[in-house]
What we know:
Elements: E1 10-13, H1 21-28, H2 39-47, E2 50-56, E3 59-68, E4 73-81, H3 90-100, E5 109-111, H4 118-122
Parallel strand pairs: 4-5
Antiparallel strand pairs: 1-2, 2-3, 3-4
Helix pairs in contact: 1-2
Amino acid sequence: MSAADLPEGYDISADPTRLNLDVIHGFISQSYWAKGMPKALVEKMVRHSLGFGVYHHAEQVGFARVVTDKTTFAYLADVFVLPEHRGKGLSKALVEEVLAYPDLQGLRRWMLVTADAQSLYERFGFKAVAHPERHMEIHRPGLYEGV
Length: 147
Ligand SMILES: CC(C)(COP(=O)(O)OP(=O)(O)OC[C@H]1O[C@@H](n2cnc3c(N)ncnc32)[C@H](O)[C@@H]1OP(=O)(O)O)[C@@H](O)C(=O)NCCC(=O)NCCS
């Protein structure tokens, strides 16, 4: 499904002024990957990212953000659809919209991390890293839970 044929009443937008920080913080601070993240940090993170919202009659019901130089690299993060709106193809339309965004064309590398949604992203060409031994990270799980 593309954003052009979303279910009735839904739309997807990259307009930062439409993003609802209460909705984004409400979900992210309960997520398995950023549990306990304070609202001030969510606001800062969104402000410095390219954010995409999914809206149902103008109420935000989904989100994704991209950390990027808009030239060579982009990191797709914090993809979610609120539970009551799942199973309608919204996340597929959202990822499609993100990947088609004009400022994000011709990049050399896209990355993301997911515990269990690999098949969502595989349909758009994402694959497990070919050479994990070349990838390095500093990762601080539980940072916002004080553990
Ligand atoms: C994952 C999530 C965004 C899917 O949203 P959605 O709008 O219900 O998904 P869609 O209706 O667009 O369908 C998603 C497709 O990916 C597949 N999929 C793969 N992994 C999935 C997962 N962990 N959860 C849901 N669907 C998943 C579905 O089976 C479906 O494929 P299909 O159309 O061939 O059946 C939503 O379940 C969610 O917000 N989950 C909690 C947050 C999360 O885990 N985000 C991903 C972090 S990387």
